[in-house]
Design brief:
- The chain has a domain at about 15-175: Four Helix Bundle (Hemerythrin (Met), subunit A) (Up-down Bundle), CATH 1.20.120.520.
- It contains eight helices and no strands.
- The chain has helices at about 15-40, 45-80, 85-110, 120-155, 160-170, 175-185, 190-200, 200-220.
- Helix 1 crosses helix 7 (about 190-200) and helix 2 runs antiparallel to helix 5.
- It starts with 15 loop residues before the first helix and ends in a 6-residue tail after the last helix.
- The chain binds fe (ii) ion (2 copies).
- One fe (ii) ion (FE2) binds next to helix 2.
Length: about 230
Amino acid sequence: MTTTDPSLDISGNDVRGFLLMHDQIRAVVPEAARHVRALRPGDRRAARALVRWWAVFSRALHHHHVAEDTELWPLVLATAPELAAEVRRLEAEHAPLDADLAAVTTALERIGTLAEPGFRPAAEELAAALSRLDTYLRRHLASEEELVLPVMRHRIGAADWTALEKALADQGHGRDTSVLLPMFLAYSQPDRVAFLRDRLPAPVLVLHDLVLGPRYRRLLKKLPAATR
Ligand SMILES: [Fe+2]
Ligand SMILES: [Fe+2]
C-alpha cells in the first residue's frame, strides 16, 4: 500500500524528530504573514514581540539547513548515490532561503520603527514576501520529503540512523531553546509532539509545562492578532 503524504508513513527508521522542524516551517511562515498584516503602525510592543518570535524560528531553520548540509546529505549520498543531482539541488536551495529569512528579520525590525504613510506599503510588501517564501518552502519540503524520507526510513542502517538522529538533535540552539521548545510542542503534528515529549527528560518537561509553555503563550498574546 502506498501513502500519498510521505511524511505520514511510519515504517522503518523513526523520522519524527527530523520532521519536527518541517512542522514549524509549515505553521510559522504563513502565521508570520498574518501577523504582519495585522500589525499597526506605532505598536512597538507587538513589533518587538514579532521580531523576537520570528528571529528564534529563523535561527532554528538556519540550523536545520546546516544540519541537512553537513550531516544528512553526506549519509544520503553515500546510501543513495543515484539521488546526487536532486540532493545538490536541495542543498543549493538553502543559501537563498537563508538570505530570505535574514531579509525578513531585517524588514520586521524596520517596520517596527515606521509610521504612516511608509508603514502600510512596507508591511504589505513584507507580508507578500512571506507568502512567497511560504510557497517556496513548501515546495522545498515536499521535494525533500518525497526524495529523501524513503532513504532515511528504509535504506540507512539502524546504527547509522541512530548516530545521525543524535547529530541532528545535537544542533545546539542555546538560549533560543526556551522559546523553541514550546514552539515545537505547540505547532507540531500530534505524533511528533508525542515523540518529543517521550524523549525530553522529566525535569525539562516539568519546566516546559510550568514555566516555558506559559511564557511562550504570553509571547504569542503580544503578537499582532495572536491566533493562538
Ligand atoms: Fe532543506
Ligand atoms: Fe528539511
